[in-house]
Amino acid sequence: MKKNSIPIIDTWAVEEHLSEFLHSQLRRAGRNKVVVGLSGGIDSSTAAALAARSLGSEHVIGLILPYGERRPEDVTDALELAELFHIHTRQIDIAPMVDAYFSSFPHAAARRRGNKMARERMSILYDWAEYHEALVMGTGNRTELYLGYLTKYGDGGVDLEPLGGLYKCEVRQLAASMGLPPKLINRVPTAGLWQGQTDEGELGMSYDVIDSILYHMLDLRMGKRSLLKAGFAPADVEMVGQMTRASRHKRLTPPFPALKSAWRKRAD
């Protein structure tokens, strides 16, 4: 077994499968449009491109939701993607809403501010979905979902997640197959939640290593001992395993205690 090997997907078959998923989810909900946040990153770009090719661009509404002028290149890349796939967009600055809240908490840590930004964006996406009678389409991938690298009820609070079965490396493959610009595919992944933040810098390892560990752990069902024998670094295996376990609550609906039928009195 080759260390750090990552899966190679049949991009044509995967795109067809994801297209069928989008159509079936919209049909079940009685809707014919999706609203998606465009960040300029590979995940949102791939999800939006997939929706435009599957549903028709007239059924896709792209919202560009920057925080002030912090990362103007994100807006530029998002607009380029939208133009390429003929997606109608609207740009809304979330800084006034976020800053108004944190004016009462000026010493709040960067992570608090980042989570607030993610939830503010999702609030806007759902407002637009209500207005347009659409579903909110997520842009998360399998790697992020299993690491818990998302904000609960922020970017993790969506109606459907078409890329949720694809590892980050597989999203790149699909993006290339669909003709996304190389600069979007190759750009350094970042949620843009604070100045200088990058995904891999925050996680402490590359997505290729993470994807390889997750692939062997989840798909090949290899335990910790087998992963170490395959040559993965003990610290990397431990970190990925710990993050997967700790974030399980983010992949589940909120738990609630069931009541025994004997506790309910029969209504007359």
Descriptive notes:
The chain has 268 residues and is mostly helical. It has twelve helices and four strands, in the order H-E-H-E-H-E-H-H-E-H-H-H-H-H-H-H. It has a four-stranded parallel sheet with strand order 3-2-1-4, with helices on both faces. Helix 3 links the parallel strand 2 and strand 3. Helix 1 crosses helix 2, helix 2 crosses helix 7 and helix 4 packs across helix 5. The radius of gyration is 20 Å and the shape is globular. The mean pLDDT is 92.
Strand order of the largest sheet: 3-2-1-4
Largest sheet data: 4 strands, parallel
Shape: globular
Instruction: Name the beta content range.
Output: 5-15%
Structure annotation, total helices:
12
Q: What is the strand tally?
A: 4
Derived structural class? mainly alpha
- Average pLDDT figure: 92
